[in-house]
Amino acid sequence: MTDLAVYDMDRTVTVRATYSSFLLHCAxxxxxxxxxxxxxxxxxxLGYVAKAISRARLKEINHALMLGGHIHxxxxxxxxxxxxxxxxxxxxxxxxxxxxxxxxAEGFRLVLATASYRLYAEAIADRLGFDDVVATGTVxxxxxxxxxxxxxxxxxxxxxKRMLDLWLSEEAITPGTKRxxxxxxxxxxxxxxxxxPVAVNPHPPLRRLAQQRGWPVENWR
Length: 221
Fold this sequence. Notes:
CATH topology: Rossmann fold
Number of domains: 1
Helix content: 40-55%
Number of helices: 9
Order of helices and strands: EHHHEHHEHEEHEHEHE
Low-confidence stretches: none
CATH architecture: 3-Layer(aba) Sandwich
CATH class: Alpha Beta
């Protein structure tokens, strides 16, 4: 059996969300003219708030606006590496670093489970010492370019639990103790799966639920 410590990323391990920052980082360094498309990205966000488009579709639209419909991995790699370096330097909660070190010392297998794209979450996870990443995938098109389309499910809400279950099956892992850390109530299915759920930097709905259920509440910032 394998003891697992599963971490959400945005606003749990990181102080701030990473997705928009990643897209803007890439646009500035690769095709600065794409920053003029920012109002369209804002419009798509309003569409999501109005429930006219899904969260997954919102990601695909903003990906296309800031990175283009297709990008080759060799073009993307230096952008990913520089963004990961900047994230590690300026956007990691001190408490996250401490907990990661404690879980590693206790022999837990460290898993980053995030709705963010694997294409950059993996680089951040590597720098922090995670063993595995469960994240939103990107379609590989003809010519091995990355398309502005999600491969499979957006790793958010109930889909995160389904993707964790699939990963456990593919890796033939039988979990022992299961720890889970997140800031958001959308991760309720994973909280309920965990033996040791911890609400980290929680937004108000999760804070209230954690208090009702007696889950630990921690501030890692």
